[in-house]
Amino acid sequence: MLALVAAALPSAASAAPSQVACENRNLNQIDKFLECINGEDASVHLQAFQAIASANGDTRASGTPGYDQSVDYVVGLLEDAGLIVETQEFSFLSYEEISSSLTLDGVPIETQTMEYSGSGDVLGGNIVPVDLDLGLGNSSTSGCESGDFNPADFTGPADIALIQRGACAFADKAINAEAAGAEAAIIFNQGNNEGRLGIIGGTLGGPVGTIPVLDVAYDDGVTLSTTTGVVNLSVVAETTETVTENVIADLPGKNPDNVVMAGAHLDSVLAGPGIQDNGSGSAAILSVALALANNKKYVPENSLRFAWWGAEESGLIGSFEYFTNAEFGLLNTPEEVDKIAAYLNFDMIASPNFIYGVYDADESTFPAPVPVPAGSDALEDLFEAYYTIGGIPYEDSEFSGRSDYQVFILLDIPASGLFTGAEVIKTPEQEAIWGGTAGDQFDPCYHLACDTFDNVGQEPLDVNIDAVAYAVYNLASTTEAVNGVPGVEPKGITPDDVVLDGPQGTFASGGGGLSGGHSHPTE
């Protein structure tokens, strides 16, 4: 079966038609469309994003000129292709860590701030461990309740609450620490499994207090929990109101009341240009949108909508604004929300030390900590079918909501997506399946200045842009398996024709990286 269906899709070696030929081609079969999509298309856009970042302080963070020029680039191409384009401007609180430091007896400990930390210095600090539960398999609830803090421990001028990750939001832990009288808080990773050992890279979700809140790795937290040494810390940070925007582009179909969405965040972190994170997802959906819109004959059965989100790196803000903004939010017109049949999310799909991850909507490997809307499993099957057809091993990645699909699933809109890994370490088992280097991060430049064009994995880019195109094309024809709305059966190999042969790699320690997404975790 697999050999038969694999032959139905174009191989990498097959001659691709020219751009002119693709614009005039009858896209009446899946393989005809896939022949007009390849990683080189996305690479052109990634090089443009790199040039924009290089000309603007090596960043494309929301609120910066680099982001604004990225928006202009995307909008210009979409409008030239005839898509209906809207830019949605909104304000948000932008956070910048100017400096942070933590020392024990004068020896530096690697640290960074929790996003939206307050500023301040604590010298000669008194470390106060808060309800810690150490070791593999722990079930830490440290700092989640005000009762975890003994007020008698926080009567001095330099008390530092040492809090372990687990069970509740970082913001709750920080609020409880300040209310107890702490002058600062240090939140260290949970250490309950191999995926929760390093620095967290978390966010408080917004300004929730005034004290400095630092983030350290599990082992450093354990060391601090027993120290009698001299602890000094310092944070200089700034939170400012900033304006940015989403880009929304529509390709109307024959059915205007059944809308299929594909989205990716366009912004980078302030520290780097974000060409893999998330230029890769942004470039992929841009390439697919342009290939469909530039075709002179193609009209989808279902309407298609593509979204490039702003301020994802500040807490999924742009995608939430899409629904909740008082001026343009879809919740102002609930009937428009009801039209959305499915949402596909593409966030980091070309990591250099990659695995091929699909959001585990059917929870076959990872129990989901968030609601999973009915129909999401059918979207998962689309991606798994594509990988099966190509004989490509794939992995379950926890359906956690930690990217822009979060707001969609909270509104009971079916969702799925792809992910090739962030800061989690590749295992020897994963190296055996996908190659690369065990012991290194899936993306060694995750949220760093080195996330340049050279950080993009060309192999996963080539594979995943076709996976994106395969899913979009199928859903443009019919969403009957997702929401029961009949369309037209696409010609070619569909998920109904495929016996899924994976996932080939499932690792309970969190093989999919940051659990299906990568935005700063909030808990």
What does this structure look like?
It is a single chain. This protein has about 525 residues and is of the alpha/beta class. The protein folds into two domains: about 325 residues, Aminopeptidase (3-Layer(aba) Sandwich); about 120 residues, 3-Layer(bba) Sandwich (Glucose Oxidase, domain 1). Strands 1, 2, 3, 4, 5, 6, 7, 8, 9, 10, 11, 12, 13 and 14 form a 14-stranded mixed β-sheet that branches. A hairpin with a 2-residue loop joins strand 1 and strand 2. The longest helix is centred in the C-terminal third of the chain and has 20 residues. It starts with a helix and ends in a 40-residue tail after the last helix.
- Percentage of residues in strands: 15-25%
Instruction: Briefly note the structural class of the backbone.
Output: alpha/beta
CATH C-level category of the largest domain: Alpha Beta
Quick one: overall form? globular
CATH architecture of the largest domain: 3-Layer(aba) Sandwich
Q: What does the radius of gyration come to? A: 23 Å
* Count of the separate structural domains: 2
